[in-house]
Amino acid sequence: MSYLLGIWQHGGRIAPASFSTTTVAAVSCPSSPAKGSSSSSASAGVSLDFESHHRQDDTADAELDDRPRTYAACAGNFSEYTPCEDVQRSLRFDRTRLIYRERHCPDKTEKVKCRVPAPYGYRIPFRWPASRDLAWYANVPHKELTVEKAVQNWIQYQGDRFRFPGGGTMFPHGASAYIDDIGELINLKDGSIRTAIDTGCGVASWGAYLLSRNVLTMSFAPRDTHEAQVQFALERGVPALIGVLASKRLPYPSRAFDMAHCSRCLIPWAESGGTYLMEVDRVLRPGGYWILSGPPIRWRKYWRGWNRTQDDLRSEQNSIERVARSLCWTKLIEKGDISVWQKPTNHLQCKVNRFCPTQDPDTAWYTNMDTCLTQLPEVSGDEEVAGGQVAKWPARLNAVPPRISGGTVPGITAETFQTDAELWKRRVSYYKTVNNQLGQAGRYRNLLDMNAHLGGFAAALVEDPVWVMNVVPVEAPVNTLGVVYERGLIGTYQSWCEAMSTYPRTYDFIHADSLFTLYKDRCDADDILLEMDRILRPEGSVILRDDVDVLVKLKRMLDGMNYDSQIVDHEDGPLVRQKLLFAVKSYWTAPSTSNHRRSSTSS
Predict the structure, then answer these.
(1) What is the rounded distance in angstroms from the CA atom of residue 603 to the CA atom of residue 599?
(2) 0.85 exceeded by pTM
């Protein structure tokens, strides 16, 4: 009677049971983390209810309404939409020094709030290493390069697929043979060269074939008349970004790359006061190499085929040599079609009057290039490497990076670095128990870590057949991207309030640790999720680590995008407030009637 009376006093409704006695909720709601807690309920051997039961008052937070917000699909001609490299928008900007091909992101009134579709007929890419040589035509339906570069063996169209023979403009007989030629000039085998940058990469065959030599290459090229060259690289499972040497610094820290490369990239190296070579110098490690093939190298042989005069090419080469000397570089050798210069290990003997002012050399997000030489850290002797000597690969991965041992990264010590490395080994091991596909060789190839910190997530996966783009947000409290590179990994700067400089469907797997807490009150969470959705492939996976309240909101948004998602406990157990959101993107494409691309990309 008391029970029935209570029901009548509270509105006369009897609520149905929200869970069964045989189900364990995977999300707990502690007021604070507990030390020494037991292992997660996700591995307890019982049937888990991953549907979150952590709720706030619906009247207090409209985002937690039981009906998830839905996100409409963009039109089919948005299937290759790159918001910050939109061709039509770029025409508003100055064509001097290719400024119009730099990042120019939409303002709030221009942003699209819809999900970018895959093209009709899209297929899951070939698994690595087959993907190095093959890509489905339906995924990147552009045949232009098969005609334009036919004699150079860039790419061939065969039925329903493209084949990549490994050729390039200056290596029509294959990238592997070309790399062997480079290997006769500098040592590519002893682990001293691990990170490389390829300027004007084409379809990234140079970077693709360096992977078998344990050299990890950041390839970039603009979105230009060579339609979809970076997109082809990514379909092949090779690291690449849309980018251009124009007026802004490249989005990488100083002293990042062991080797820089240009193979007929047509960059005017000696123009604008040598600014472009000065930017290569900034991102090149002390003792690093710059490799140039193509115009003007070996102009005496090729000048007729290049449709240029001998005087013009001779003058260009002399100008490049002059700029290189002004940077205190040493020309090691010119043999055949290849020239190699080396950056000094320090500036103790570099007598120039063009050193840059005190601007941070690692600042590189919408930062203007300097027409000056980036000064290396001070040394006490001629034999000392400025900024510290990195270990050879693979010891480099887990050795304490010089930036940390030198005390130049605030709040990070050798001890905290080693603790972080062990922490991520344990975390990635836990990920693989929850998402067993992460442990399956070939299931994922292109991975993105949206808030990489010291690169621990990527380091823990280094033995797997994957590569990771390590992003250090420009809003992060500490700039750690230099540490990532000193470990022999690659990455870029990025503000996640804007779109990334890459094509849709770039990544198979996206990871983000505390990203949405970092961006709280900075930009809208759904804008970040829509960007993640744009760059994630159909049937790709996501792991988000964040506070439970944040993840509950994000799960509702992802449900509105038709993701299959679950929130699970932290690897240290249910009493930790931070939880993990695992999600999988559904397969969907533009309808078959959408046969053409966004008009701005084809006009």
Answers:
(1) 6
(2) yes
